Amino acid sequence: MSNAVRIPGFIPESEKPLYMNAADVFVLPSVTAASEVFPLVLLEAAAAQTPVVASQFDTIESIVGPNEMGSFLEPGSVESVTDELERFYEDEEMRRETTENALHVAQERKWDGIAKQYYKLYRSVLE
To answer: Which residues contact 5 (CB under 8 A, 6 or more apart)?
Structure first.
């Protein structure tokens, strides 16, 4: 497994899409919920069709969970990170499904999609 994992460290904003597109899975191993109010990086991963493995906090679950675009880790548990990465590495069907789901999430959150949602909301208020 150690040959399959790369930890690049800090990545300049301009290079982030390259790394996201090259990744098989994006890992967000947060230790506290306070540090992750709404992690935009999860949507960036979705835009790159990259499934997510992230710490299990309410805010993260609200993005990843209902959309089935990844899985969760126990915060602070190295074993949990290892287990989830092994699962993604070994389960091709899960990788395929979560990749498709990530793309769907990204498409729903494009500006034209958001505008359509607001339009529907405003129409329903006016009716």
So the answer is: 85
Query: What CATH number has the domain bearing residue 25?
Result: 3.40.50.2000
Is position 8 within any domain?
no
- Quote the CA–CA distance of 112 and 49 in Å, as a whole number: 19
Domain count, the chain: 1
Summarize pLDDT for 25-80 with one digit per residue, the tens.
Answer: 999 988 877 777 788 888 899 989 999 999 988 888 888 887 788 899 999 899 99
Distance of CA 91 to the CA centre of its chain: 18
pTM: predicted TM-score of the whole model, two decimal places: 0.76
61: containing domain: 13-126
Using DSSP bridges, classify how beta strands 52-55 and 26-28 pair: parallel, antiparallel or unpaired: parallel
